[in-house]
């Protein structure tokens, strides 16, 4: 009897569990709702959302505060007529490759505030969208090829559990110009950290991590950085020439453990935010004397006050 039950369970569970959406509320907002226009909303139980959406274009499709553990293959596939697709606060833990097959969005795909632990290859490769928001999850692992061939311009991976940066992640994501890694567990910035093809002038935010070390070659393949933040980390030093040949617009290394730097700030025409470090006053004075010649402008109101500079 027991054996029979076990066998039944084993065979019965996969078929049932393939259903991604069970009694889930889906909304579709049109771009300019008319005064008496009631927004479209319906409750669905299905493995594929697309056939349940209205035939007119949706500006924003949203499923929020639902309970969805796994996005199975085809769950969102073939959605091509929306600006935004939001799957937020839905308790999503896993995404199968193919869940977003042939998805094309004009603005953004957000999976913010779920419990996603890893991003596998084949989950997002087929998606055409400028902005991907994966903030507030539990992401600790991303496959080397997870973002290959995407048309992404901006990726938000903040508030996750990433322990490191893999230099291969963005090698085939040529349009990427904004990367947000705030509030992860990154300890080090490796050499050639961001190998994007034809780098424009990306904005990279690595603030609020546990970074102690930045490789001297971290940005060796980078020509320009519009913005780089390493604020709120554990830096005690920076390699000489770590920004050699890189034109930086704004550098933020405030809130670290730096006592002295010699040539390690960004060059002329840049702005360097360096306050809230335990600067040695003699060293700070030296840095100040190179402001606007060797370095760009230096912002450190509190440290300058403390050192009477
Ligand atoms: C990206 O595109 C290339 C060329 O079409 C293809 O060989 C490769 O498998 C694609 N990568 C992924 C992860 O889909």
Key features of this structure:
two-stranded parallel ribbon; elongated; 10% helix; Leucine-rich repeat, LRR (right-handed beta-alpha superhelix); 13-stranded mixed β-sheet; 19 strands; 309 residues; 25% strand; binds 2-acetamido-2-deoxy-beta-D-glucopyranose; alpha/beta
Strands, helices and their partners?
Elements (H helix, E strand, L loop, with lengths): L1 H16 L3 E9 L10 E7 L13 E5 L5 E2 L10 E7 L5 E2 L9 E6 L7 E2 L11 E3 L7 E2 L11 E3 L21 E3 L7 E2 L13 E3 L7 E2 L9 E6 L17 E6 L18 E3 L7 H9 L7 E3 L1 H6 L3
Parallel strand pairs: 3-5, 4-6, 5-7, 7-9, 8-10, 9-11, 11-12, 12-14, 13-15, 14-16, 16-17, 17-18, 18-19
Antiparallel strand pairs: 1-2, 1-3
Bound molecules: 2-acetamido-2-deoxy-beta-D-glucopyranose (NAG).
Major sheet: order of its strands? 2-1-3-5-7-9-11-12-14-16-17-18-19
What does the largest sheet look like?
13 strands, mixed
* Ligand set: 2-acetamido-2-deoxy-beta-D-glucopyranose
Helix content bin = 10-25%
**Rough outline:** elongated
CATH evolutionary superfamily: Ribonuclease Inhibitor
Tally of discrete structural domains: 1
User: Helix and strand succession?
Assistant: HEEEEEEEEEEEEEEEEEEHEH
- Provide the β-strand percentage band: 15-25%
Which fold name fills CATH's third level, the topology?
Leucine-rich repeat, LRR (right-handed beta-alpha superhelix)
Query: What's the mean pLDDT score?
Result: 91
Uncertain stretches: 1-16
Number of strands: 19
Through-space gap between termini: 84 Å
Quaternary arrangement of the chains shown?
A: single chain
- Count of helix runs: 3
Architecture (CATH level 2) name: Alpha-Beta Horseshoe
Computed Rg:
24 Å
